[in-house]
Write a structure and sequence with these properties.
Layout: E1 12-20, E2 31-32, E3 51-52, E4 56-60, E5 66-70, E6 78-80, E7 90-93, E8 102-108, E9 111-116, E10 120-121, E11 124-125, E12 129-132, E13 137-139, E14 148-154, E15 157-162, E16 166-167, E17 170-171, E18 175-178, E19 183-185, E20 194-200, E21 203-208, E22 212-213, E23 216-217, E24 221-224, E25 229-231, E26 236-237, E27 244-251, E28 254-260, E29 263-264, E30 267-268, E31 272-275, E32 280-282, E33 294-301, E34 304-310, E35 313-314, E36 317-318, E37 322-325, E38 330-332, E39 337-338, E40 348-355, E41 358-364, E42 367-368, E43 371-372, E44 376-379, E45 384-386, E46 391-392, E47 397-404, E48 407-413, E49 416-417, E50 420-421, E51 425-429, E52 442-443, E53 450-453, E54 461-467, E55 473-478, E56 484-491, E57 496-502, E58 515-523
Parallel strand pairs: 2-3
Antiparallel strand pairs: 1-52, 1-58, 4-5, 6-7, 7-51, 8-9, 9-12, 10-11, 12-13, 14-15, 15-18, 16-17, 18-19, 20-21, 21-24, 22-23, 24-25, 26-29, 27-28, 28-31, 29-30, 31-32, 33-34, 34-37, 35-36, 37-38, 39-42, 40-41, 41-44, 42-43, 44-45, 46-49, 47-48, 48-51, 49-50, 53-54, 54-57, 55-56, 55-58
């Protein structure tokens, strides 16, 4: 659907998509939303009409676009958590899981790609990588011949790195690409294990234990442009036994790199550095003070870079295994995470995923912010929260986290979640967390945004938005055919944050049929 903006450049429009779940009077009248969805969950171009969204939830694609995922993706045996601050949260298994450690997870639409050391998924043979479609497991061809440590998805392509030398039965040196039906090598690959992958446009950034990429020198990090390999300057080094890169995150032109090194581009950089496309930069004085420390995980959200690993300092100040870099200085996340449980020599953070204001952290720890949190926890910007009773097993640890909407996928070395059996991978859902992630926001101008809650809705919904205070506002409600079904003049509201409640009824007071409704607020 096209967004209508009337009256030239003086107008500002706010638009969102809303799922309307009809009352019983409308139940069953409309075709299923599935009839107009592409396989990856997008609404087909040119689709129109009113559609029944029952059995679907709204999530987001890599570019923030709305995707509609079958509720089958919520299947799996639940392992309810009773008690604690977030008792409403629930752990779910992904079928019967896999038969060995999970080291990497990536989500694309309704598909969850999982890699590690396993050779079975859902009880069937797989080659160290598999895809969960929401209800069952699928191999990626014959997979790879050794462990997977990194996965990144870009459109139809799944990039996989690890300790393997074959993919799909053909040579592929430590990194390969799955196109949905076949495996492909990335040129000559690299000369040793891959531990991290990040994709930005046509560029694939790869880090690990290697010192060559495509047969040419590349110290522990390199870039694949689709046809050839390139070093990132002189890469990373250090006066330690064996440097490596374990984590990569890309934000615009900046590539953040973490691992076990003390130099980047020949200059001091303690365990983390930034590549700007032509040169290396330290992040202040970095993290850690001794060579036993290391960065294992990086996640970027706006100007903030979240860094996790094994360290007790960031920027020279105390920070227990996780910290935030704001572009100029380091900040701890409260008292961080500590305690490694039975058999652990140290605590660590191995995985970070950010969703709106929430930072999910996994690793080898039993406390977050001084309170119990078994190997996974959530930081809300000011305090720590456990995810139910967390994960468990003989020597449990979390190695991978991926967030899709309000679903948090967790992988590692564990055989229990929430006190119930779960083989190395599980999903956490808390209905009270991640609400912002279910509200579609499509800014039409840099200053325009519109939120709706609850979304989906079976009755009314409250809109929140910003008013300029300079001109009248009109709320216009459109159905999926593009017909105007309700107009409300809000008048000239004071500048700043505003809220308005819509009762879900059309202009003549009738209940709207269920479906996807486009909402627009025009400021004239």
């Amino acid at each position: 659907m096209d967004l209508l903006i009337e009256g030239g450049n003086m107008n500002v429009a706010h638009m969102v998509m809303l799922l309307v779940i009809a009352s019983a009077a409308f139940a069953g009248r409309d075709a299923s939303l599935s009839t107009v969805l592409t396989p990856d969950g997008r609404i087909m171009e040119g689709a129109s009409g009113s559609f029944d969204p029952e059995g679907f939830r709204m999530t987001y694609g890599p570019d923030g676009e709305p995707l509609f995922v079958a509720e089958a993706s919520l299947s799996g045996e639940p392992a309810p958590f009773s008690g604690g601050q977030y008792g409403a949260g629930t752990w779910y298994t992904l079928g019967s899981g896999v038969n060995d450690e999970v080291r990497a997870i990536a989500v694309s639409g309704s598909d969850v790609y999982v890699g590690g050391d396993f050779t079975e998924a859902g009880g069937s043979p797989v080659g160290r990588i598999a895809r969960w479609d929401g209800s069952s497991w699928h191999p990626l061809g014959s997979g790879v011949n050794d462990g997977v440590r990194a996965i990144a998805v870009s459109g139809p392509d799944v990039y996989v790195g690890g300790g393997f030398t074959e993919a799909g039965g053909s040579p592929a040196n430590y990194i390969a690409r799955w196109d949905g039906s076949n495996w492909h090598a990335l040129g000559d690959g690299v000369n040793h294990g891959v531990r991290a992958i990040a994709v930005s446009g046509s560029d694939v950034y790869v880090g690990g234990d290697f010192i060559q990429a495509g047969g040419n020198p590349a110290n522990y990090i390199a870039r694949w442009d689709g046809s050839s390999w390139h070093p990132l300057g002189s890469g990373v080094e250090g006066e330690i036994y064996h440097p490596w890169v374990v984590a990569i995150a890309v934000s615009g032109p900046d590539v953040y790199v973490g691992g076990w090194f003390t130099e980047a581009g020949g200059s001091p950089a303690y365990f983390i550095a930034r590549w700007d496309g032509s040169s290396w930069h330290p992040l202040g004085s970095g993290v850690g003070v001794v060579e036993e420390e290391c960065v294992f995980a990086i996640a970027v959200s706006g100007p903030d870079v979240y860094v996790g690993g094994v360290f007790i300092e960031a920027g020279g100040s105390p920070a227990n295994n996780i910290a935030r870099w704001d572009g100029s200085s380091w900040h701890p996340l409260g008292s961080g995470v500590e305690g490694g449980g039975e058999g652990a020599q140290y605590s660590s953070v191995s995985a970070i995923a950010v969703s709106g204001p929430d930072v999910y952290v996994g690793g080898h720890f039993t406390e977050a912010g001084g309170s119990p949190a078994n190997y996974i926890a959530r930081w809300d910007g000011s305090s720590w929260h456990p995810l139910g009773s967390g994960v468990g097993g003989e020597y449990p640890s979390v190695y991978a986290i991926a967030v899709s909407g309000s679903d948090v996928y967790v992988g590692g070395d564990f055989t229990q979640v929430g006190g119930s059996p779960a083989n190395y991978i599980a999903r956490w859902r808390d209905p009270d967390v991640g609400i912002d992630a279910t509200l579609e926001e499509i800014p039409v101008s840099p200053h325009a945004s519109l939120h709706a809650s609850p979304n989906p809705t079976a009755s009314g919904v409250e809109f929140s938005f910003q008013s300029s205070g300079l001109s009248p506002l009109t709320l216009e409600i459109y159905d999926t055919v593009g017909r105007l079904v309700r107009t409300q003049d809000l008048g000239t509201l004071p500048a700043g944050s505003q809220a308005h409640y819509w009762n879900g009824l059309g202009g003549s007071g009738q209940a709207l049929a269920q479906g996807v409704v486009l909402r627009e607020a025009l400021q004239r």
